[in-house]
Amino acid sequence: MLEPEPMDVRSWVANYRERGWFAVPLRPRSKSPARRDWTSLRLTPEVFPKGCNIGLILGEPSGWLVDVDLDCPEAIELADQYLPPTPAITGRPSSPQSHRWYIAAGATTEKHTDRNGSMIVEIRSTGAQTVVGPSIHPDGEPYENLVAQPATVPAPMLAACVKALADAVIVKRGQVDTSSVQEPCPRAAGRSNDNNLEQRAIAYLAAMPPAFAGSNGHSQTFSAATALVHGFGIEPERALAILQSEYNPRCDPPWSDRELQHKINQAVIKPHDRPFGWLRDDSPMEPAGVAVDLSGFSAEPVTKVVQVDPDLPKPMPEDPGVLPESLLRCPGFIAEVMDHCLECAPYPNTVMAFCGAVSLQAVLAGRRVRDPGDNRTNLYLLGLAHSAAGKDWPRKLNMQILQQVGMADCVGERFASGEGIQDSLFLTESMLFQTDEIDGLLQSINKSRDARHEQIMSTLLTMYSSANSVYPMRRKAGKEAAGVINQPHLVVFGTAIPNHYYAALSERMLTNGLFARMLIFECGRRGKGQEPKIREIPDSIRETAEWWENFRPGAGNLVDWNPTPAIVPHDDDARQLLSDARVNAEEMYDAAEEDNDSVGTTVWGRVSEQTRKLALIHAISRNCRDPIIDAESARWAIEVVEHQTRRMLFMAASHVAENPFHGECLRLLEKLRKAPERTLPHSVLLKRMKMEAKVFHQLIDTLVQQGDLNIISAETAGRPQRGYRMTEQAMAKEDGEGTG
């Protein structure tokens, strides 16, 4: 006998690993693992010895890869009639098609023998391994390589099919009474010829209700399959063709061929209350349009089904894109601080310079000015940029300016606790917290059960709303009343990495007001670098900052503790513009409320307030000594806030998840959305998701069932390549109103 050609073991181990399956080295020409601890091995291809055999670790470690091992000729002969179809079938020359491969989450190893103890068929799962090509059998025969992708089936269904196959083999061997075993594919017989029988069956299907998504569609389709296979006794192959041509076009959405085959398989193997052929032998043909009795088909209790329209995909909010650079300019003090920052920074970043300058103006004017509606300049600003994109320079510049005018004690860095924020504002009523990596704080709030993190969020919410009132300090046991903070003024300038920030948010954060209180600005790509410069703070900037530090509105010796902020008036045009903006925000709020969109109502409910705060800041930046909120200030504030509100809603809908599993689903769809033609091969997507194959397959199954994902197969020079593509439904969610 000729020796087989040397096999490329490592390349096939890499191939199997890319598909989510772990391999274990076996002794050459043997089924035995080379190591005793093989069940815990997760080896890379490089460590496999040349010339060794390889086995695939089955079950949970390999994403629930399962092998149905057909151990006798009868099982191989009858397998097509009993087992679910799968393209993944392997064997060796003397025992072809003896292994059928599936993905069956939760499957357990089960062995089926006849009365003499001879093995018939075995489900091999967790704790087992199966030899695969390019291994060599002890007799010298080559094993087939596992090239095709196994079908995904429910574990209980696979177990039932395998048991039915084992029972059929036992019957074939004459070891039990055949009357107790149901035949898988009984042939139609009786009064009518085959053509007339099929016409009767088609008429019966026409009288049956179609399947609709969300309206017990699985049971309806199973009933139709049962009527054909069990009621009329039609061969499964013909029953599938009739189901595809006569019933499926009326379903919404139509079933795939694979799903219909599954229904036929279920109808074949499941026990039924009525005798085989009861529609063929006893029932006259029902005319189309007449309701038929389906109670005998359902494996579940009969219930009243109310037909509802299938759920339409909810469109994504419109994406306005990042804020135009023309809106990142505010005349006067803010523009001067921005220009100085951009001139000196190693990596000039317009968005970060803008956020830093606005936050500086906001803290300088804290407890000193207000608009006619008693809105203050306390803002929560968040700049989103990647690492080393110039986030640090604006913070340093703010600290430098405040230090030169004697306000260094107004600056804080991190939120240690809610009590820490309160104590800081009790000592210094106007504070600027410049917090980097704020997404880490939000992750802690989101995932931790520590009440300390919850207190931070609660304090941030309350301080924002208390800027024009009094905040009572917490009481301590055994202590006198702690007092109050009069008009606490908290300004936050936070920075974070874009995707990390939105992923750190939870639905609760979106609806409790923290998200709505923030103005979020995205930086996009990092700008070109320049040589950093050491420049003194321009005199105009320092003089304006000193003027704000010395400005004490009100009268009396308690002006620092109980100030009376100066009112910055509106002109008539600004008043009308701001009023119109308020009405528009109220209309958007009403629309969100009608759609039961809790995030939309929360965010749009804060738009008018945010707009008036920014209009006030625009006015005092342009002229600190005699400010007025005019049409220019109002228009700028309206454009900035409405644009950022729509952008925030879009980003939240794209990234924020209701639970960790939903978050992974969104992340997977985001990978596909950015891919060419919104399609990626299996191995590429699995690598980019950086997760276990088991979890990956759960994500894929969920998205397929939701209608957001299609599994595709592309022909290549070698084996067919499996891939994934976003569906039109998912694209509609992504595109939303922006496609109109």
TrEMBL record:
Species of origin: Aporhodopirellula rubra
Provide the DNA primase/polymerase bifunctional N-terminal domain boundaries.
13-161
Q: Which domain of life is it from?
A: Bacteria
Sequence intervals crossing the membrane: none
List the InterPro entries. Answer: DNA_primase/pol_bifunc_N (IPR015330), DUF3987 (IPR025048)
> What is the name of this protein?
DNA primase/polymerase bifunctional N-terminal domain-containing protein
